[in-house]
Amino acid sequence: MNEPIEEFRKAGHRVVDWIARYYEDPRRYLVRAPMRPGELVDALPAEAPEQGESYERLLDDFERLIVPAVTHWNHPRFFAYFPSSCSPPAVLGEMLAAALNTNGIHWLSSPAVTELEQVTLAWLRQWLGLPAEFFGEIFDTASVSSLHAIAAAREMADPEARERGAQPGLTLYCSEHAHSSIDKAALVLGIGRRYIRKIPVDAEFRMREDRLERTIEQDRAAGLRPFCIVATAGTTSTSSVDPLEPCARLAERYGLWLHVDAAYAGAAAILPDKRPLFEGWQRADSIVVNAHKWLFTPLDLSAFYTRRPDVMRRAFSLVPEYLRTAEDSRAVNLMDYGVPLGRRFRALKFWFVLRRLGREGITKLLRSHIAWAAELAAWIEADSRFERVAPVPFSTVCFRLRGDNEANRRLLARVNQSGRFFLSHTELDGRFVLRVAIGNYHTSREDVRELWELIQRTADEL
Ligand code: PLP
User: Fold this and answer.
1) Neighbour count for residue 20 (Cβ, 10 Å)
2) In angstroms, what is the span from residue 453 Cα to ligand 1's centroid?
3) How, if at all, do strands 135-139 and 431-437 pair?
4) DSSP string covering 330-381, please?
5) 162 φ, ψ to 5°?
6) Are 307 and 135 in contact (CB under 8 A)?
7) CA 453 to CA 445: how far, in whole Å?
8) CA proximity to 397, closest of 239, 263, 270
9) What is the pLDDT of residues 126-180, one digit of tens each?
10) How far is CA 227 from CA 195, 212, 244, 451, in A?
11) Is 384 helix (H, G, I), strand (E, B) or coil?
């Protein structure tokens, strides 16, 4: 059936109106739907419709059935995990990308996909203070970006692996607080968990460089082949930053690939006063910064940078005949630098965000979130029932009730049960810890203040 275009236009206006209203007044929704697993499945037909339906019915059901089952990551009071909120210009970019539905398999299949990706990542690279030698490409998630980094590291250490497969002994180093995606990458690449060294952290949850060096030395002496260090700038639990400069020094001394996982906190390098925390990352072989975490761009957009595109190419280039083209040498074929062939036009939404907000707009948002996190930390410290349990270098605050884990679990459950706020937790040194990650485009200081008041009231009632 060909779409009667007037119906599309009318429904499209209704969709935009719905989105505008959603952004106008997001607080009328609960952050998390009070629903049981399976409820939506039960509410929907078990079989798809035979005949096409009207947009009216479809959109009515979207509002009636789907929205109530949504956890609103865009909600101003979503403080769980790390933020992943979306600014209005990104929505428009995403709509246009869907309308074009162009596929950047290689340059020829859609020059705009490849070239806008190059332009937007170069703009971001400049804001992050990284040198021009860093080649940028977009993946869906940080997990996949890190997978590519570790594959390139393996290629550098063991070029034969591409033909004969992985051999045991290649050894990877990361802190005990590194994200689980690093383990998963090592699993997928045949490194094996036995060859992942989890280096202990210091009192501020940063990888200990003395232990890192000692472990590398011991492994070399035992005949293993150290090949990669993964440093985290903004760990998932506490947002601590591993010592990047010493990691770069050790990587250079032992000839290892250094990958920096800055999935969340990397955005803060846009701020000159936070830049010192990242000192040394310009010497990394690869870096990941998720625009879909703290850069107001919706899932998915993970910015991956490498100083070694030649190694990425060696690891991944494999061109079947039907994809061979004869452009001039300026044409970049991103399929040569990673696993995905199909490439959606993610850069378009990012271009909209970078242009509409500008560095000034993004800086203002980041600074507000950091300032509110500092205020929250101060309120916590001023209430003797609570303790702050980690430094707050960015916009994530870790704290707990002074008391047992059970009391903290109950506190978190009750705050979340209200449906008005959503927080998550972590465990530090065997202790259950609450986390507040501030980073939503729509959040205000008042939201943070009200969250703290609710936490205090809930603690009174426990
Ligand atoms: N790295 C860090 C430090 C993270 O905190 C996360 C997720 O929160 C990831 C990687 C994984 O991100 P993604 O969901 O984009 O794979």
Assistant:
1) 12
2) 30
3) unpaired
4) T---GGGGSS------HHHHHHHHHHHHHHHHHHHHHHHHHHHHHHHHHHHH
5) -60, -35
6) yes
7) 12
8) 239
9) 999 999 999 999 999 999 999 999 999 999 999 999 999 988 999 999 999 999 9
10) 10, 13, 17, 45
11) coil
Name the amino acid, one letter, at 77.
R
**Would you state the pLDDT for residue 319?**
84
Structure tokens at 448: 């943070």
Q: Which residues line ligand 1 (CB under 6 A)?
A: 81-82, 141-143, 179, 181, 232, 234-236, 261, 263-264, 290, 302
Amino acid 57 reads R
Rg, C-alpha atoms of the chain:
24
Closest ligand 1 atom to 82 CA? 8
Atom of ligand 1 nearest to the CA of 236: 5
In this structure, what DSSP letter does residue 225 have? E
| Sequential DSSP letters for 144-190 | HHHHHHHHHHHHHH-TTHHHH---TTEEEEEETTS-HHHHHHHHHTT
Q: How far apart are the first and last CA of the chain?
A: 60
Q: Which residues of the chain have pLDDT under 70?
A: 1
271-287 pLDDT, tens digit each:
999 999 999 999 999 99
Residue from 370, 451, 454 nearest 76 by CA: 451
Q: At what angle do helices 5-24 and 88-100 cross, to 10 degrees?
A: 160
Count CB-CB contacts under 10 A for residue 151: 21
Could you tell me where the DSSP H helices lie in 189-327?
Answer: 209-221, 244-254, 291-294, 309-316
Burial annotation 24-56 (CB, 10 A radius, 16+ → b, else e): eebeebbbbbeeeeeeeeeeeeeeeeeeeeebe
Residue with CA at minimum distance from ligand 1 atom 10 = 142
Q: Return d(Cα 6, Cα 412) in angstroms, integer.
A: 49
Residue 270 to residues 266, 397, 450, Cα–Cα distance (Å): 8, 20, 29
Domains of the chain: 103-344 (3.40.640.10), 353-461 (3.90.1150.10)
